[in-house]
Amino acid sequence: MGVNNPVVEGALQAVELEAWQKMIADPIYTAKTLYQRFKSGAKTYPTANITARPNTAGSLSQRPAFNVPMRIQSGAAITQGTGNGDSMGRGSGSFWVTGDIAPVFLFSGCEVTYLAEMATAGKNRALFAVRSQELKNSLDVFMRGIESLFQGDSSGELDQIPSTATVSNNSGTGNQVSFISGMNNANQSTNLG
Fold first, then answer.
1. What DSSP string describes 38-71?
2. Calpha distance 34→44 (Å, rounded)
């Protein structure tokens, strides 16, 4: 998802005292459309904490946070007979099981060095305080990561450049000097990548 480096003072010198521009361009795309749709349209149910409980063998096993009961086998199958005193045979019934659901926790760390924080503390030093701005940026990137999990195969990877794709470096014209053609999911790569 990215390089794991803290925000050091050298990375934010562009916004320190000598900066003259008040509006800072932020071309990094962030999206949470699908997440918001799930959140607004979903029903919430109370769940338990994951704890240990005794199993049939007498030892402890993990108790799931949420059980989803389901009927996986129907009742008796039909039989055919002559109607002249045939035996109906033994009957059967449904079979129920439970699907266990456990919560998944997602994390995203934000690290800012002390020098970077001090170099941007107060309006006399920089256009913004890096600590508060970077926490906001981290939340935006975290939401983009969740969106990537929803729209992909749950690995966070939106697409992979197939071996059949054409990768062309420095061969385009105008603003498009390099390009990749033959992507599986090019729209997601440009929107969220």
1. HHHH------PPPEEEE-TTSSEEEEPSEEEEEE
2. 17
Asked if residues 70 and 97 have their Cβ atoms less than 8 Å apart, the reply is yes
3-state secondary structure at position 147: helix
Render pLDDT for 5-18 as a digit per residue (tens, 0 to 9).
777 777 777 766 55
DSSP 3-state assignment of 179?
strand
Element of type H or E holding 97: strand 95-101
84 phi/psi in degrees, rounded to 5: -115, 60
Print burial letters for 30-47: b (CB count within 10 Å at least 16), e (below 16).
Answer: ebbeebeeeeeeeeeeee
User: Can you tell me the distance from the alpha carbon of 17 to that of 120, in angstroms, rounded to the nearest whole number?
Assistant: 8
pLDDT of residue 114: 92
CA nearest 119: which of 141, 137, 134?
A: 134
Give the distance, in angstroms, between the CA of residue 82 and the centroid of all CA atoms in the same chain: 60
Contact 180, 160 (CB under 8 A): no
Q: Mean pLDDT throughout 150-163?
A: 73
pLDDT of residue 173: 66
Q: Which two tokens stand for residue 19?
A: 């900066």
Enumerate the domain spans of the chain. 1-17+64-71+92-157, 160-193
Regarding pTM above 0.70, the answer is no
Taking the C-alpha atoms of residue 108 and residue 142, their distance in angstroms, rounded to an integer, is 6
- Give the pLDDT score at 193: 37
